[in-house]
């Protein structure tokens, strides 16, 4: 019997057998995953599992030692982080993701100038994050954690990425801020952008939004599931998140 048509479609992001590490240690070992446009794909796993290393390798910040990364079918292997960004791969790091000494506006200008983007891209991201427009002259080192995270995401969005990788964007934020940040990420997704989201905190709010979830442990993918199904799995909380998911 022939395969259904969607099985022939090229995924937005296709990672195959990816391996990378530091010094003598391979941290991620033979990882394969895919992410689609206009949908949220999550990576979840304990501290030290290699989640950040994985997305840094996909983004070209850490060199791959084997395997391949394709965006829209095009191989990105061997390309710098900047070249990958130009091809539509947006990456918002977990830490040190804004220039603290610069104002909000200057943070965004640095990217538009470096990447030779039209200036109206700044207005575009101000529309999505009105608080940044209000605080455009404020030094970004004095922003709240949530505002800083919004600025970091806004900086990635200036390139109009096809895929946006977010490394724990809600970690450490106050509950109301988390709700609005999640809503803003959903707006990004609904605009057609693929989102690859490393989840650490707030899984009970975020997992229901995730089409696909990859569970990572010790540098490998151990399980793939759909977000809502995963949340409903009674063994999941205990296995991967300790007691962090409130039980119904
Ligand atoms: N620059 C580095 N040099 C050497 N080892 C590193 C480096 N960055 C990370 N590691 C090691 O790689 C392993 C995986 O770290 P990584 O930050 O990728 O995990 P993580 O799953 O993102 O953890 P967390 O949930 O705490 O963010 C850890 O053992 C860490 O100590
Ligand atoms: Mg990490």
From TrEMBL:
<dbReference type="Pfam" id="PF00005">
    <property type="entry name" value="ABC_tran"/>
</dbReference>
<keyword id="KW-0813">Transport</keyword>
<comment type="similarity">
    <text>Belongs to the ABC transporter superfamily.</text>
</comment>
<keyword id="KW-0067">ATP-binding</keyword>
<keyword id="KW-0547">Nucleotide-binding</keyword>
<dbReference type="GO" id="GO:0015807">
    <property type="term" value="P:L-amino acid transport"/>
</dbReference>
<dbReference type="InterPro" id="IPR027417">
    <property type="entry name" value="P-loop_NTPase"/>
</dbReference>
<dbReference type="InterPro" id="IPR003439">
    <property type="entry name" value="ABC_transporter-like_ATP-bd"/>
</dbReference>
<keyword id="KW-0029">Amino-acid transport</keyword>
<feature type="domain" description="ABC transporter">
    <location>
        <begin position="13"/>
        <end position="243"/>
    </location>
</feature>
<dbReference type="InterPro" id="IPR052156">
    <property type="entry name" value="BCAA_Transport_ATP-bd_LivF"/>
</dbReference>
<protein>
    <recommendedName>
        <fullName>ABC transporter domain-containing protein</fullName>
    </recommendedName>
</protein>
<dbReference type="GO" id="GO:0005524">
    <property type="term" value="F:ATP binding"/>
</dbReference>
<dbReference type="GO" id="GO:0015658">
    <property type="term" value="F:branched-chain amino acid transmembrane transporter activity"/>
</dbReference>
<dbReference type="GO" id="GO:0016887">
    <property type="term" value="F:ATP hydrolysis activity"/>
</dbReference>
<dbReference type="InterPro" id="IPR003593">
    <property type="entry name" value="AAA+_ATPase"/>
</dbReference>
């Amino acid at each position: 019997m022939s395969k259904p048509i969607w099985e022939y479609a090229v995924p937005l992001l296709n990672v195959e057998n990816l391996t990378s590490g530091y010094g003598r240690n391979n941290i991620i070992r033979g990882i394969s995953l895919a992410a689609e446009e206009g949908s949220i794909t999550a990576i979840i796993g304990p501290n030290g599992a290699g989640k950040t290393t994985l997305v840094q390798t996909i983004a070209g910040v850490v060199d791959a030692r084997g395997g391949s990364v394709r965006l829209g079918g095009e191989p990105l292997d061997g390309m710098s982080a900047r070249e990958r960004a130009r091809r539509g791969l947006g990456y918002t790091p977990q830490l040190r993701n804004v220039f603290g000494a610069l104002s909000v506006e200057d943070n965004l200008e640095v990217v538009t100038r470096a990447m030779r983007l039209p200036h109206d891209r700044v207005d575009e991201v101000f529309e999505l994050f009105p608080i940044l427009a209000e605080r455009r002259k404020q030094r970004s080192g004095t922003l709240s954690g949530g505002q800083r995270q919004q600025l970091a995401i806004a900086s990635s969005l200036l390139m109009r990425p096809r895929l946006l990788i977010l490394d724990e964007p809600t970690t450490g934020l106050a509950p109301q801020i988390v709700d609005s940040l999640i809503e803003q990420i959903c707006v990004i997704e609904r605009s057609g952008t693929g989102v690859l989201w490393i989840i650490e905190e707030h899984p009970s709010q975020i997992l229901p939004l995730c089409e696909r979830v990859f569970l990572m442990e010790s540098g490998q993918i151990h399980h793939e599931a759909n977000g809502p199904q995963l949340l409903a799995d009674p063994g999941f909380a205990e296995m991967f998140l300790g007691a962090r998911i409130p039980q119904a």
